[in-house]
Amino acid sequence: MELTWHGHSTWYVQVDDTSLLIDPFFDNPKTDLKPEDIDNPDYLLLTHGHADHIAHAGAFPDATVVATPELASYVNDEFGLENAIGGMGMNLGGTVECGDAYVTMVRADHSNGIETGYDTSAGMPAGFVVSDTKPTQIADEDSTTFYHAGDTSLMSEMRDVIGPYLEPDAAAVPAGDHFTMGPWQAAIAVDWLDVKHAFPMHYDSFPPIEIDTEDFVREVKATGSDTEVHVLDGDETFEL
Question: For the chain, which end, N or C, has fewer CB atoms within 10 Å of the first or last residue's CB respectively?
């Protein structure tokens, strides 16, 4: 599995022959790329409806949208994205097969109004767990699994459900504070998830979320976790 961070919360995930783009937003200072520079993904995963997560969704009209039914309907109306997983989207707790990947939608504690003048909810905000095997209650040592936490605050579901049952090997967690977790709560999330690898995201894009990423590295160490923290450069790829 290849994980490429394009800044903010935008990740391009390659699972064998299947490509998935999560939260496309290229107007951030960590990337030099434009949407048209990105290989067309097979699937477009949208955690919630805020503009800094769906701004460039319309650049990928051939992708299958993986989102809540409310958000899938909105991006269809707004961007002409007609192909939604299952015809209408999915919802929290569900797992869908996306080519060579399995995608499970999990909770994220955040808000989710549409910011384009509509008095509209995009349903519940979400995170995604992407794996190369179908999740079951039986641990699979051969599986490779990546957790994109979306725009979430610290929540006990990371400790009680996502970590022990979905067993991510790596997690991308928001660490910019103000709108999401900051470094110390993000570090607790990493500890609760018990992952081998962690990546901070959703930082430095706007003045309120500018941070020193070394604070996140120190906070992870302070939990006693042996998780390896990777502060990626924009457009950098990590092989999981």
Answer: C
